[in-house]
Amino acid sequence: MRIAVTGGLGFIGSAVIRHLLTGVELPGGGPGPTVLNIDKATYAATTGSVASVSDLDRYQHAAVDIADGPSIQAALIEFEPDAVVHLAAESHVDRSIDGPGQFIRTNVVGTFELLQAARMEAERRSMLEDFRFVHVSTDEVFGSLAMDAAPFTETTAYDPRSPYSASKAASDHFVRAWHETYGLPTIITNCSNNYGPFHFPEKLIPLMIIKAKAGEPLPVYGKGENIRDWLYVEDHARAIVTALLQGAPGETYAIGGSAEQSNLDVVQAICDLVDEALGDRVGGRRDLITFVDDRPGHDLRYAIDSTKAQTELGWKPSVDFTEGLRRTVDWFLANEWWWQPLLDERYAGQRLGTVGGGDDQP
Questions:
Q1: Is the pLDDT of residue 359 over 60?
Q2: What structural domains does the chain harbor?
Q3: Which of 32, 103, 170, 361 is deepest in the core (most CB within 10 A)?
Q4: Angle between helices 321-334 and 204-214 (to 10 degrees)
Q5: Gap between the Cα atoms of 307 and 359, Å rounded
Q6: Active-site pick, 39, 90, 139, 234
Q7: Confidence of residue 281 (pLDDT cuts 50, 70, 90)
Q8: What is the average per-residue pLDDT within 225-233?
Q9: Distance between CA 136 and CA 39 in Å, rounded?
Q10: Alpha-carbon gap, residue 50 to 35, rounded angstroms
Q11: Model confidence at 355, in pLDDT bands (50, 70, 90)?
C-alpha cells in the first residue's frame, strides 16, 4: 500500500507517519505501507518529528506546496498512491486572527488543489472506486458549545467563529462535494484538541510547560474558563489510520478524547507536574499564572461524542488525560534539543492574535 500524507512534518502528521511506518500491519503480512510525506516545511514543520523513521526505505519526502496545483499533481503521478491522508494546514487560531489570508490559501485553495490532483490520479490509473482520500479536520468547525449542551457529533451543524475554523469548514465542504460530484472516495475526521510530544510551542500545553520550566509568567486568556476536549496525539494517529483502512467512503467520524478540561485546570496541572519533576521553585509554579485579555471570538467549549468511531471503526482513546499530560510534560522537559531551536529561530513565545484581523491576501 502506498500512502501520501500531507503535512507530515507537523505535529499530527508526523504522528500519523510514525504510526504508519512502525505500527501498521497490512492484511497478508509483509512490509507495511510506503509513505510519501508531502510537506513544504513551513514555520511549524520539523524534521526531528520524523527522525525515528526517516531512514526507512519505505519513507520518502517531497517538499511540495499543496496549493501549487501542477507540483502536487506531479508528485502524485510520480508516487502513484493508493490513498491520500490530508493533514497539511495552517492550524493556530491566533495566527488566523493576525493573518487570515494564509489560512485561505493553504486550507481552502490547498485542499481544492489536492482534491483535484487525487481525483485525476485515481482516474488516470482507473482506480477511482478503490482510492481513498482521508481529510483530517477539527471540531472547531462546529462552533461554540454551551456548558450544558451535548457534545458535537457527526451531524452537528457547522458554525465556525474564527478565520481558522471557517477555512477548515470550507475545506470540509469541498471534500464532501468532490465525493458527491466526482465520486472520489473521501472520508472526513473531525478531532478535538490534540496534545503530546513534538507539539509546536505556540500551542497552550507546550507553551505552558516551557514557560513553567523557565519560571516565566503563564498567560491564561480571560478567566481560564474555556473548555476543550483533549486527545492524545498518538491515539488520534491510530484513529486516522483506522478510518483510512476501515472507514466507509462518504462518511464522517468525530474523534475525541472524552477529556474535557478548562484551560485553567490544564495550566494548573502542568504547574504541578513541572513542580514534581523539577522541584526547584519555592511555593510552586501556580503563582506564575497570569490572566490576560481574552482572545477575540474565543469559543467557550468544545466536546466530541466519539460513539460512531468507537462503534463502526472499533477505535477508542487509550491514554487518559492525566497519564497523557504526564507523558507530555516529561517529554518536553527531556527534549529541550527539539524545542529550544524553535524558540530561538521561529517563535519566541510572544502572544499572537491581538490585532483583530490582518490585511494579507491568500
A1: no
A2: 2-195+231-259+302-318 (3.40.50.720)
A3: 103
A4: 50
A5: 41
A6: 139
A7: confident
A8: 98
A9: 15
A10: 12
A11: low
